[in-house]
Amino acid sequence: MDEPASGIELSLVAPVYNEEENIVPFLEEADEALSKLGLSYEIIAVDDGSADRSRALLIEAKKRFPALRVLALDRNHGQSAAFDAGLRASRGRILVTIDSDMQNDPADIGKLVEALEKHGVDGAVGWRVNRRDNFLRRISSKIANGVRNRLSRETVRDVGCSLKAFRREAILRCKLFKGMHRFLPTLVKMEGGTVVEVPVNHRPRLRGRSKYGVWNRVFRAFADLLAVRWMQSRALRYKAEEIQ
């Protein structure tokens, strides 16, 4: 990612995978929420190889939403690749990630931006206080968060929440691998950054289908956690000074 172009202060990055029923409602809410912040902005929708009409709808939506940019991956690569592509194409000084399935509330973006400025931190990550998922998904997420924090020596209460805001330079220092989007707060901290949690709204999925089952998410996330733990244990930490 190069330095941001002048004129864009905030970039909202949203992966899209088979969300034809949610695209227009999501863009309406996101554009309205961003327009109230008093910041210049862009919305980057990254089509992750959708098999439905998502890409066509996004292209059509560009006529209605001037701030919308559409990126298209060559095939389905997963959320980490979609987030990475959007972040690297962004031009803002503040980079916000969000899901396009309408479960994250775009109205909460302002809370994250305010937390960045108020606390002077590098990242503000959403914490879904009242989860609107079924019992099995809620309990599995709670257990998974506990295991992740124990092994990674973290305190982030909601790793799975996609609604996050970061200063551009903090993301510039991080490299994403497959599945690593869940661990962005930890990756930022590993590079010396600071992160705060912000309570955010969570909504039930009303349209479309979830792309992640409980079990495949648990096993994949655990494998990713082991990779993060390895990176933490092997990180270079030293001080050096030139002797005159």
Summary, kept brief:
The protein is of the alpha/beta class and 244 residues long. The protein has eight helices and seven strands; from the N terminus they run βαβαβαβαβαβααβα.
Explain this structure:
This protein has helices at 23-35, 54-61, 79-89, 109-119, 135-152, 168-172, 184-190, 214-234; strands at residues 10-16, 41-47, 68-72, 94-97, 123-128, 164-167, 195-200. With 244 residues, it is an alpha/beta fold. The chain has a single domain (10-138, 157-209), classed as Alpha-Beta Complex (Spore Coat Polysaccharide Biosynthesis Protein SpsA, Chain A). Strands 3-2-1-4-6-5-7 form a 7-stranded mixed sheet, with helices on both faces. Helix 5 (135-152) packs parallel to helix 8 (214-234). The longest helix is centred in the C-terminal third of the chain and has 21 residues, at 214-234. The termini are far apart. The relative contact order is 0.16. The mean pLDDT is 84.
Uncertain residue ranges = none
What does the radius of gyration come to? 18 Å
Q: What's the CATH H-level superfamily name?
A: Spore Coat Polysaccharide Biosynthesis Protein SpsA, Chain A
Second-tier CATH architecture: Alpha-Beta Complex
Number of helices: 8
CATH top-level class: Alpha Beta
Arithmetic mean pLDDT: 84
Please give the share of residues in helix.
25-40%
Distance N to C terminus: 37 Å
Tally of extended strands?
7
Order of helices and strands: EHEHEHEHEHEHHEH
